[in-house]
Task: inverse folding
């Protein structure tokens, strides 16, 4: 004796948020039922496990049927098969495209290729996120990437329009796309302490300041690729460390400004040249794609770690970077003010964001 | 005369990829109507083609316009091979043929393929230019409006209700044609879909013709069904109620026809005749010719319900064509068989000879039937010893004493051999017949009424005679498919009448195969004359049966009438049921009686005539119940039959509302609860479920087996209903629907109804359990614990449903209410404070206590089963009627849904095991629904419609369609007197509502409705005062859904218009401003990759969602934003998991409408209105 067939179809498609989340999380029907039972929905609604199972299966089926539409969220609004109120549609899309920070940290900056997809079971084991969910998230990244890769216009706006995502989520996707496109290395051990949001913030900075779109938003491909010309110009900054005078001058200006204002003054003074070299070298090397990938590693290794070992506070960091940036403009022989500003603006906010435990 | 159909193909979207290489499609469209086809250009390499075609014009007969759908096929152009079909769209253009409905079809419609489902959408524009056809001999009936709604549609007023219309068409099923072996599944499915489209179009056209002939302009309560008879063919049949509707008016109400078939004087003359409905009557007929052998067995459980099951295996002999084979009773009686149980067989010849093979083509001949049995027949019938009394059937529960239902009792009870034995031992013996008072009805409906007419003096006489006769000619069947009536229309309700018959299917002879039409349809009627047996004749038998049952209950009409079939292999059970009732003639004032209307086509003033006639015919014959002024809250409960000649041993009491007329103690009906009814507390869904195993058999043996099972099934369903009703302390059932489904190895029965406590009816006695072996102490203890459980449940249920019967007023004590009853009632009023046990003890003495005797394990299980119905979770109510009594303040949140379950049984289950499984299946399904819809709490599941089927051995399929509606909890629960008051207010409100609407529309649209509001107001006044009872302090504010109105078309917002669907006839919080036409769609879906589509559940889930989507899209294309009276008529699911295949057929219907939200109440309007109406209320007290 068994229930052979069991369906429920509403004129307005009924979707339970909780079950939807369980489905998104990749739970099997049975696991989902267990979770729901533990959640106490049974007592609340005088239901039995049987009822719960039936409901869960039914919902899962509905979600599966909707999934194909969710791949093209714009279709969800003008398809006829399911009558779903607009607020529900938005919820469905938002949750479908939501991702786990844990997961995204694993694939951030990796090429969204079949090879990466094959490794997802490792990611799944490592993060404890179900493989199914990993695949969905990965496919979402890839789908968004494919669509916006070729589009003109601002990246975030494109994502928002094509996938009907809320602003914050669109920004996150922009970061993911940006990272994937530039293949930033984020997986190294030294970077493990950083969250996705740290990277997303940096991505936002880079997109807004270092891409072609940042200067001219009518250009193609501008938001996903760094402004080559700018990268080229960054080489000119090398003078700040290669010219001994300039370096000393710079140091003394910064030291004068900071004296008495920080507890780590001595360490700063001792380290100034190293730190400055670190930052300028990063800038100078960015023209090489490979060095772009190591951008965050370099930032951490060359700058953040030394400072951290010297126990700088964020305030110290802020002060230092402000004066470091500004002082350069006072240097007589330093001519690359525009590039310096554009570079240091991003570097400063990135470092401040990345400078935590 | 022709019309011009124009179609334009605008664009497509979301098309499937047809060319793998390019991932694109080269789509073009073929537009076909009749035999004409147009094509668009190919729009290359696009999934979103923009054809923007010219207007394709078809010049066609309006007959074709009605029959044919516009067929749009989307194809993928292929240079080298045949073009691939992407899918099709069938557009029913009927709504465009009626001036008041839609004017254009425009919108995105899903492209449907029977194998792949929906594959993209196409945007089309369709218009019709119709030239008026004045040809008297035309075959078309354009302009007749069709409504699935079983009440007067919301924005119409019924001028006249003409009566019953029916039609059926027959064809071969393409699925079973030889050619099917060589064509693809897709081609077969499409042939079938198209054929059914054509057949329904034709059916509708023919019904329309009948309506026009009757002088009507609309069909309300249109119910169309398919019988997939397999090898033997395909039958599409429809019934409905012909009406003359008028757009918008003060009252929804309606004039109906008075009872033309008013019970005549004959009734009085032969008083005994009427009561003949015994608890169990069986009308067995006919002789057993082995060749034409057929068994006919009647069975009926009477009183509030009168059920009849007859079974007649098909009869192959060439007996009289339209012979009422089912009605052997006639023949037998006529010769005066009465008191002896004469051998029935020889009477056969008589039966037929006495019948003129009536009814050739037209309906006129019905009167000729009636002549046959005018002889008012006798009491004797009932005493006919052959009458297998029901009591024999009740033997499983031998000492069941049914207070008022199921009276097994027969006058000659002692002499009656128990039916049980008879039927078990030898079915042949069953063919004795006891007929009852058929003649009565015939007399009344036919020439017999001449008698009564004769007694009236004056010039009226001739007119009356004419009237009655012609009315009767028309009224072969005084049936109404309506389930809700305008206030005051429904006078009295007798009880449920039902009839069943078992038939053997045989290939339908199809003389029309040589027909010239491209598709082979045939109108069975026109060929029936030389056919030995037709589907039409089958239904005729059943309808006659129903009619006679109604007569037996002293009623001249059957309301809430419906018909259904269940087919398994070659056996078919035909069922019909309805509610015997007496309708008011008072509404004659709203228009001329149809008869006259028909004759002269101009209004005669007949109000007085009508009433007089009623007075004369009915008032005098039946001593009660025909009063013109009845208090609306209880009048319909008053018995229509003669108290002295109760058709069954009922316990009558004086009405608890008005104290003037008698009421039965329990009332079963198939209609909706009248709006004005006084109800105590809330109602609830009551369901009886039954499963009976049956031996596998073939042909006639099978039919015989089924026939002999049917009565038991019905009886037990009825007992279950009664028990469950008592358990909930309720005394009436509305919307009763009994479905019996037949399979190879079992029969399933499910009876659903909404139980309520009618204030007018006596409070039901409790349920008492008694043991057979009182000696055993432990046994007694067992019984008493069980009794306690039951009492607890009753108490709990009372609380749950707010049933607090009103205190009995002192003065009444003197009234002639039977002693025991009164005592119990008085007692009940104390019982609130006193403890349960004492009530229990006392109730032992109560005559009306419902006693269940436990004599074996069966009974014990029955009782357990009784208690297993789990109560609805907090915040939920459920009913199968339109709305839940006691809940008015609906919010606008509605959710229509369909749920289907198929359960696989293990082999070799006992009846009990089966019952339990089946019952659990239904209960679990309900629980699942409650759970699913928990976010809508507080809410009520309305119109819960269960359909059961046995798709194959060991499979049970249950399909439910219903709507969940939220309501505001705030309103205090009403009880007792209050409820009476409230319902009255409600009635007033109802009028207000109509009025407001009228005014509003006048103002808004400056519609040319000449009915001025002043007139409307005065009508309200008179209307109310006419039947007014005390309404001292009517609240000036209408409540609930009458709260009105400001149009606010919020539905145009999103890119896909929201279309609401509901099985109800209204949308809470909204007004329907326009009916756009009927939606009647039939789809087939098939797959040969079942697993890939998510198994059976995934397959069906998708299909149902697709059907919904297509309904919504077509409604939206008509310009509508909702479907009301939606129902899923058919859901036939077949699977073959081994082959990875499944097929499903779904038929849905409903009315497309435009509604507007009543978001704001125009308070001034209401104020004035209530001011106007109220003075008239105070007038009369009860």
Result:
């Amino acid at each position: 004796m068994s229930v052979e067939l069991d369906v429920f179809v509403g004129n307005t498609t009924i979707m339970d948020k909780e079950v939807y989340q369980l489905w998104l999380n990749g739970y099997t029907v049975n696991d989902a039922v267990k979770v729901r039972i533990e959640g106490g929905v049974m007592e609340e609604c005088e239901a039995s496990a049987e009822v719960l199972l039936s409901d869960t299966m039914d919902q899962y089926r509905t979600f599966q049927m909707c999934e194909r539409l969710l791949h093209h969220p714009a279709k969800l609004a003008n398809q006829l098969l399911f009558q779903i109120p607009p607020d529900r549609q938005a919820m469905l899309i938002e949750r479908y495209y939501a991702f786990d920070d844990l997961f995204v940290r694993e694939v951030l900056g990796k090429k969204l290729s079949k090879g990466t997809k094959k490794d997802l079971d490792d990611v799944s084991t490592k993060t404890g996120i179900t493989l199914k969910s990993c695949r969905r998230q990965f496919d979402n990244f890839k789908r968004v990437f494919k669509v916006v890769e070729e589009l003109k216009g601002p990246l975030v706006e494109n994502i928002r329009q094509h996938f009907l995502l809320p602003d914050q989520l669109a920004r996150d996707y922009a970061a993911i796309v940006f990272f994937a496109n530039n293949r930033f290395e984020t997986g190294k051990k030294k970077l493990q302490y950083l969250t996705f949001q740290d990277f997303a913030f940096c991505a936002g900075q880079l997109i807004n300041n270092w891409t072609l779109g940042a200067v001219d938003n009518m250009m193609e491909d501008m938001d996903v690729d760094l402004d080559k010309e700018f990268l080229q110009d960054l080489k000119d900054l090398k003078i700040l460390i290669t010219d001994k005078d300039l370096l000393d001058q710079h140091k003394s200006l910064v030291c004068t400004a900071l004296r008495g204002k920080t507890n780590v003054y001595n360490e700063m003074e001792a380290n100034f040249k190293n730190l400055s070299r670190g930052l300028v070298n990063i800038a100078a090397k960015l023209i090489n794609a490979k060095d772009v990938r190591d951008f965050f590693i370099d930032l951490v290794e060359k700058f953040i770690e030394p400072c951290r070992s010297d126990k700088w506070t964020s305030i110290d960091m802020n002060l230092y970077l402000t004066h470091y940036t500004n002082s350069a403009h006072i240097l007589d022989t330093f001519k690359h003010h525009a590039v310096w500003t554009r570079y240091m603006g991003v570097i400063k906010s990135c470092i401040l964001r990345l400078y935590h435990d | 005369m022709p019309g011009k159909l124009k179609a334009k193909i605008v664009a497509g979207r979301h098309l499937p990829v047809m060319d793998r290489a390019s991932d694109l499609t080269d789509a073009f469209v073929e537009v076909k109507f009749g035999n004409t086809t147009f094509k668009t250009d190919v729009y290359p390499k696009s999934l979103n083609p923009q054809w923007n075609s010219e207007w394709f014009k078809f010049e066609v007969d309006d007959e074709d316009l009605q029959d044919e759908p516009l067929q749009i096929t989307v194809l993928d152009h292929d240079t080298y091979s045949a073009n691939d079909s992407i899918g099709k769209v069938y557009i029913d253009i009927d709504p465009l043929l009626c001036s008041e409905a839609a004017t254009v079809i425009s919108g995105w419609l899903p492209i449907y393929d029977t194998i792949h489902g929906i594959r993209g959408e196409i945007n089309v524009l369709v218009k019709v230019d119709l030239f008026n056809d004045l040809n008297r001999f035309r075959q078309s009936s354009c302009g007749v409006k069709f409504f699935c709604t079983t009440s007067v549609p919301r924005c119409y007023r019924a001028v006249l209700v003409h009566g019953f219309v029916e039609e059926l068409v027959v064809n071969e099923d393409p699925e079973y044609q030889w050619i099917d072996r060589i064509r693809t599944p897709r081609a077969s499915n499409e042939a079938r879909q198209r054929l059914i489209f054509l057949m329904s179009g034709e059916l509708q056209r023919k019904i329309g013709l009948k309506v026009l002939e009757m002088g009507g302009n609309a069909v309300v309560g249109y119910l169309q069904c398919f019988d997939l008879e397999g090898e033997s063919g395909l039958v599409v049949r429809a019934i409905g109620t012909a009406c003359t509707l008028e757009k918008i008016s003060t009252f929804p109400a309606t004039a109906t026809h008075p009872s033309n078939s008013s019970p005549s004087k004959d009734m009085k003359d032969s008083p005994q005749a009427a009561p003949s409905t015994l608890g169990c009557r069986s009308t067995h007929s006919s002789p057993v010719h082995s060749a034409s052998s057929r068994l006919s067995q009647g069975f009926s459980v009477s009183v509030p319900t009168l059920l009849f099951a007859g079974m007649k295996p098909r009869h192959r002999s060439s007996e009289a064509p339209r012979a009422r084979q089912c009605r052997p009773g006639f023949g037998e009686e006529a010769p005066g068989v009465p008191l002896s149980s004469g051998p029935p067989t020889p009477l056969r010849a008589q039966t037929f000879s006495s019948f003129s093979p009536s009814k050739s083509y037209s309906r006129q001949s019905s009167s000729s039937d009636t002549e046959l049995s005018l002889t008012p027949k006798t009491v004797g019938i009932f005493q006919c010893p052959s009458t297998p009394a029901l009591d024999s059937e009740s033997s499983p529960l031998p000492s069941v004493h049914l207070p008022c239902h199921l009276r097994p009792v027969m006058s000659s009870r002692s002499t009656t051999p128990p039916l049980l034995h008879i039927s078990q031992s030898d079915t042949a013996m069953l063919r004795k017949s006891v007929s009852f008072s058929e003649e009565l009805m015939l007399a009344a409906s036919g020439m017999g009424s001449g008698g009564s007419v004769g007694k009236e003096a004056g010039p009226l006489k001739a007119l009356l005679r004419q009237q009655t006769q012609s009315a009767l000619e028309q009224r072969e069947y005084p049936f109404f498919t309506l389930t809700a009536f305008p206030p005051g229309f429904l006078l009295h309700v007798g009880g449920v009448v039902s009839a069943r018959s078992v038939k053997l299917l045989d290939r339908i002879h199809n003389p029309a195969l040589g027909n010239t039409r491209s598709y082979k349809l045939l109108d069975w009627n026109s060929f029936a004359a030389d056919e030995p047996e037709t589907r039409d004749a089958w239904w005729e038998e059943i309808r006659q049966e129903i009619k006679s049952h109604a007569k037996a209950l002293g009623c001249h009409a059957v309301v809430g009438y419906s018909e259904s079939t269940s087919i398994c292999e070659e056996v078919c059970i035909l069922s019909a049921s309805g509610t015997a009732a007496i309708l008011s003639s008072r509404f004659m004032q709203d228009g001329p009686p149809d008869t006259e209307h028909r004759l002269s086509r101009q209004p005669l003033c007949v109000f007085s005539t009508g009433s007089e006639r009623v007075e004369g015919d009915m008032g005098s014959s039946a001593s009660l119940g025909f009063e013109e002024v009845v208090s609306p809250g209880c009048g319909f409960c008053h018995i229509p039959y003669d108290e002295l000649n109760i058709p069954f041993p009922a316990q009558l009491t004086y009405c608890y509302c008005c104290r003037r007329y008698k009421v039965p103690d329990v009332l079963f009906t198939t209609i909706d609860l009248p709006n004005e009814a006084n109800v105590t507390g809330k109602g609830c869904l009551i369901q009886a479920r039954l499963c009976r195993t049956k031996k596998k058999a073939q042909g006639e043996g099978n039919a015989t087996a089924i026939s002999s099972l049917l009565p038991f099934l019905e009886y037990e369903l009825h007992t279950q209903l009664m028990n469950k009703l008592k358990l909930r302390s309720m005394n009436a059932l509305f919307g009763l629907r009994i479905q019996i489904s037949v399979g190879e190895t079992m029969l399933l029965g499910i009876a659903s109804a909404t139980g309520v406590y009618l204030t007018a009816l006596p409070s039901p006695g409790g349920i008492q359990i008694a043991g057979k072996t009182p000696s055993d102490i432990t046994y007694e203890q067992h019984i008493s614990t069980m009794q306690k459980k039951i009492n607890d449940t009753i108490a709990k249920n009372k609380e749950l449903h707010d049933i607090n019967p009103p205190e009995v007023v002192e003065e009444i004590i003197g009234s002639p209410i039977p002693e025991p009853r009164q005592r119990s009632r008085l007692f009940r009023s104390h019982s609130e404070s006193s403890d349960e046990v004492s009530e229990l003890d006392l109730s032992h003495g109560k005559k009306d206590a419902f006693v269940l005797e436990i004599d074996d394990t069966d009974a014990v299980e029955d009782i357990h089963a009784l208690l297993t119905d789990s109560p609805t979770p907090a915040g939920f109510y459920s009913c199968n009627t339109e709305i839940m009594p006691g809940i008015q303040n609906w919010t606008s949140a509605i959710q229509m849904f369909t749920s289907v379950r198929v359960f696989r049984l293990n082999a070799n289950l006992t009846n009990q095991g089966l019952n339990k499984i089946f019952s659990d299946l239904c209960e679990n399904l309900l629980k699942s629904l409650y759970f699913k819809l928990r976010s809508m709490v507080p809410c009520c599941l309305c119109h819960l419609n269960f359909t059961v089927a046995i798709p194959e051995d060991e499979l049970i399929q249950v399909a439910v369609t219903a709507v969940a509606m939220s309501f505001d909890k705030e309103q205090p629960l009403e009880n007792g007197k209050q409820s009476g008051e409230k319902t009255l207010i409600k009635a007033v409100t109802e009028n207000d509502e109509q009025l407001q609407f009228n005014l509003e529309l006048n103002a808004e649209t400056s519609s040319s409705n000449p009915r001025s509001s002043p007139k409307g107001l005065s009508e309200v006044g008179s209307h109310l005062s006419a039947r007014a009872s005390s309404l001292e302090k009517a609240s000036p504010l209408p409540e609930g859904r009458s709260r009105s109105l400001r149009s606010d078309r919020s539905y145009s917002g999103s890119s896909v218009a929201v279309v609401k669907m509901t099985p109800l006839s209204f949308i809470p919080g909204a007004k329907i401003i326009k009916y756009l036409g009927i939606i009647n769609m039939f789809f087939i879906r098939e797959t040969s990759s079942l697993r890939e589509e998510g198994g059976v559940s995934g397959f069906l889930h998708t299909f149902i969602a697709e059907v919904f989507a297509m309904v919504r899209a077509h409604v939206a294309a008509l310009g509508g934003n909702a479907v009301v009276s939606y129902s899923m008529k058919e859901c036939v699911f077949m699977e073959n998991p081994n082959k990875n295949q499944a097929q499903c057929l779904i038929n849905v219907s409903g009315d497309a409408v435009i509604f507007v939200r009543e978001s704001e109440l125009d308070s001034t309007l209401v104020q004035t209105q209530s001011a106007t109406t109220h003075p008239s209320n105070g007038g009369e007290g009860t």
Summary: The mean pLDDT of chain A is 87. The beta strands of chain A are 2-10. Chain A touches chain B through 39 residues (CB under 8 Å). Residues 49-70 of chain A form the longest helix (22 residues).
